[in-house]
């Protein structure tokens, strides 16, 4: 049996790229072995860890891409007497042209459906199952559920712009997030909204908003027993969870620390002001600290998803529809006048 990285051509794995381990299992007579159980192991020194078990296709092929790509030594095993050679995967820095990535990922792309198109410093090509986008010296892959959404937003020449990396999976709740120059696409099969998009001119600002949109429609079953309460470890009656919600967004996006985390809302406000990232004007992706009960005193928080005129639309937790306080509460998009916002704060994108 065999093992290789991607298509076997140009097997470098650059930073922020995903990779696939692939191979073929044949019978002793040299015919493809279908439905063979393949175990993939990762070696670190003398330690061996099984990272995946899968079965071969009708043609004897197996293919696996780790949710969290890691350098290391890998081997595929069918039995104690049938295994591949060990193969080393090592992260590199460097350049990657569209032609190079096409050669490396040809097994995944399908047939080309367009020629190479260009706009400014961006070049892209569409395939039956993917799109490759080159910006500057790097080329990124868009595929799966992210692909149809990306194309519906006009791809590289649309509002999202070029990718800044391949999709990142292995996030909490099995989420997958792909960042673009001016936006983000988030996929989470467990969320109320399975695929969400956000657009922001600030690089990275859309990531948390895309995650926030996926949670719209979530409702706590019992007051103060939301999943955000459980995540932070506070489920007592006084523990309102609007602050827990915005902190959870950073956790779900794979950016712990991007939003401050505190079990006390007054302590969160104090830490936010001390952090020195506050602002007076709204922007998509900024946190909005709201004077919920009275103007000038922050007692609630959400994340800005839209700005128009004197109003902002925020995704907020621990509110009822329309931003009220009826029970049960959940996650909702709320339209608020800017006069109700005490201050804004930028997460660390």
TrEMBL record:
Residues 240-318 form the Peptidase C51 domain. InterPro entries: CHAP_dom, LGFP. It holds the Pfam family LGFP. This is Peptidase C51 domain-containing protein.
């Amino acid at each position: 049996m065999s093992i290789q990285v991607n298509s076997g051509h140009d097997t470098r794995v650059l930073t922020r790229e995903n990779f696939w381990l692939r191979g073929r299992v044949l019978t002793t007579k040299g015919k493809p072995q279908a439905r063979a159980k393949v175990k993939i192991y990762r070696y670190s020194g003398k330690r061996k860890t099984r990272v995946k078990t899968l079965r071969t296709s009708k043609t004897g092929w197996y293919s696996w891409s780790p949710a969290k790509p890691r350098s290391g030594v890998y081997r595929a095993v069918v039995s104690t007497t049938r295994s591949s050679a060990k193969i080393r995967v090592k992260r590199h820095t460097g350049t990657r042209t569209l032609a190079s990535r096409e050669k490396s990922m040809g097994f995944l792309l399908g047939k080309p459906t367009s020629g190479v198109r260009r706009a400014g410093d961006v070049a892209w090509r569409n395939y039956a199952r993917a799109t490759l986008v080159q910006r500057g010296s790097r080329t990124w892959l868009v595929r799966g559920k992210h692909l149809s959404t990306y194309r519906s937003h006009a791809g590289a020449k649309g509002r999202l712009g070029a990718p800044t990396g391949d999709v990142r999976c292995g996030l909490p709740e099995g989420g997958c997030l792909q960042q673009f120059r001016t936006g983000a696409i988030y996929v989470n099969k467990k969320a109320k909204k399975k695929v969400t998009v956000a657009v922001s001119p600030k690089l990275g600002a859309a990531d948390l908003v895309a995650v926030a949109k996926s949670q719209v429609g979530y409702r706590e079953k019992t007051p103060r027993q939301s999943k955000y309460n459980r995540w932070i470890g506070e489920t007592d009656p006084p523990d309102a969870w609007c602050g827990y919600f915005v902190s959870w967004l950073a956790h779900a996006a794979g950016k712990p620390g991007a939003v401050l985390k505190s079990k006390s809302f007054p302590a969160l406000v104090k830490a936010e002001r001390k952090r020195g990232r506050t602002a007076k004007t709204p922007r998509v992706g900024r946190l909005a600290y709201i004077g919920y009960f009275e103007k000038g005193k922050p007692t609630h928080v959400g994340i800005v998803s839209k700005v128009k005129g004197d109003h902002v639309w925020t995704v907020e937790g621990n509110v009822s529809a329309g931003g009220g306080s009826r029970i049960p509460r959940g996650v909702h998009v709320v339209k608020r006048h800017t006069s109700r916002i005490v201050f804004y704060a930028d997460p660390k994108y």
